[in-house]
């Protein structure tokens, strides 16, 4: 068996173990064996079916989407420090969702689908702006423009979000505050089902781009000579990333650093080949978010820590470590 199947099988088994642990852990302890054998009491069955299972599935979808998007963005910009959060995609999606909550709260227009659309449009708008700015530059200048544009958009989105928080009602302010920290608390079957369908579409679009991303690493000129339509590839990744990140932010708030931490670590371990890196990142992102969410539910039980805080506490120090290393591979 080759290396790639071993890596993917290992990550899949680790994810299944994390899901079993997540199913059993929480304020109410559940036995996976009792659930599988049908010997669990009615309360345990209802808690698992109505609360735990949709939450775990949403964690898998969001983790896979964020990490897969991060791997694709790193390959697209040929920069291992690119991710949806650093580029401002999550902030843009978050700003549009916050605007939707404040403007349409207590209105018939304030629906789950409207929140989805707001997150997608926010991420897509930011992605188009950042991509247009970086496209005017070349080489290292493009990377610098990319990061500076993401920093500017994050700052502007934070300021605009502060204005919305200032004018929001007490109920809206609490909703914005909890949602902004990142949480899977509000996972329901109807939201999880929609997320699984749309994120699967976005992930499929990213997986279709694996071979082309490998070719793009040789440079746009060489890739074009080999028959690659770079503009079509960029459009596909832009749409897939914006759709996926927008949905993630609309459903769970901003979960930081997951799109940077997982694909960067796996890139250092597995190499730059996207046919292995993309699926490994998706599995690794799902694994990390399921583990982080289980810890968020159990460390302070019966209270719950927002999972976005845990991922930021993990990713922030790692990002500083990368900056201090100043390694050519980073």
TrEMBL record:
DNA-binding recorded as keyword: no
Keyword Transmembrane: yes
Membrane-protein topology: Multi-pass membrane protein
Pfam families: FecCD (PF01032)
Regions crossing the membrane: 53-73, 85-104, 116-134, 146-167, 187-207, 237-264, 276-295, 307-324
Keywords: Cell membrane, Membrane, Transmembrane, Transmembrane helix, Transport
InterPro entries: ABC_BtuC-like (IPR037294), ABC_transptr_permease_BtuC (IPR000522)
Location of this chain's protein in the cell: Cell membrane
Family membership noted in the UniProt record: Belongs to the binding-protein-dependent transport system permease family. FecCD subfamily.
Protein name: Iron ABC transporter permease
Organism field: Halomonas colorata
């Amino acid at each position: 068996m080759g290396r790639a199947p071993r890596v993917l099988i290992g990550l899949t088994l680790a994810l299944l173990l994390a899901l079993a642990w997540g199913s059993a852990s929480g304020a109410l302890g559940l036995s996976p064996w009792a659930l599988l054998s049908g010997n669990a009491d009615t309360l345990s069955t209802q808690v698992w079916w109505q609360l735990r299972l949709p939450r775990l599935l949403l964690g898998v979808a969001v983790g896979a989407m964020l990490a897969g998007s991060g791997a694709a963005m790193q390959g697209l910009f040929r920069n291992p420090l690119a991710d949806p959060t650093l580029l401002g995609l999550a902030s843009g999606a978050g700003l549009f969702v916050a605007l939707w909550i404040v403007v349409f709260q207590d209105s018939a227009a304030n629906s789950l689908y409207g929140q989805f659309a707001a997150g997608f449009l926010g991420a897509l708008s930011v992605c188009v702006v950042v991509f247009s700015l970086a496209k005017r530059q070349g080489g290292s200048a493009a990377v610098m423009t990319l990061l500076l544009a993401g920093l500017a958009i994050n700052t502007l989105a934070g300021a605009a979000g502060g204005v919305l928080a200032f004018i929001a009602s007490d109920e809206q302010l609490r909703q914005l505050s909890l949602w902004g920290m990142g949480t899977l608390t509000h996972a329901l079957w109807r939201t999880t089902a929609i997320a699984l369908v749309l994120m699967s579409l976005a992930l499929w679009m990213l997986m279709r781009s694996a071979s082309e991303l490998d070719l793009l690493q040789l440079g746009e000129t060489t890739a074009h000579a080999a028959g690659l339509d770079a503009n079509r590839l960029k459009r596909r990744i832009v749409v897939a990333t914006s759709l996926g990140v927008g949905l993630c932010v609309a459903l769970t708030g901003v979960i930081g650093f997951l799109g940077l931490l997982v694909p960067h670590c796996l890139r250092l371990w597995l190499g730059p080949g996207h046919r292995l890196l993309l699926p490994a990142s998706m599995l690794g992102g799902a694994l990390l978010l399921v583990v982080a969410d289980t810890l968020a539910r159990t460390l302070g039980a019966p209270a719950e820590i927002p999972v976005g805080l845990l991922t930021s506490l993990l990713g922030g120090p790692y990002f500083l470590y990368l900056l201090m290393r100043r390694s050519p591979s980073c």
